[in-house]
Amino acid sequence: MFKKYVIExxxxxxxxxxxxxxxxxxxxxxxxxDELGTDIQWLHSYVTADxxxxxxxxxxxxxxxxxxxRSGFPANAIAEVKAVLDPTLAPA
Length: 92
Fold this sequence. Notes:
- This protein has 92 residues and is of the alpha+beta class.
- Helices cover 32% and strands 30% of the residues.
- A hairpin with a 3-residue loop joins strand 2 and strand 3.
- The longest helix is centred in the first third of the chain and has 18 residues.
- The protein starts with a strand and ends in a 12-residue tail after the last strand.
């Protein structure tokens, strides 16, 4: 069974990179994901000034660490998502 994870990556200046550079980052990540197989999937990332917050589905946290090691992107913090909250959960 897959679990959802949020990965915080400290990458100085990532938010000032041009789109072409961010596309290169995505390509590098995708290449490593292809190597790791079907037990890990990248859903999306949020880019801020000096960090990215990446959302992944994976069999376990070890695969997140392995992706970070092979891709060269740090995984400074990894948290398993236990629930998702949104405005539709509030009573009418």
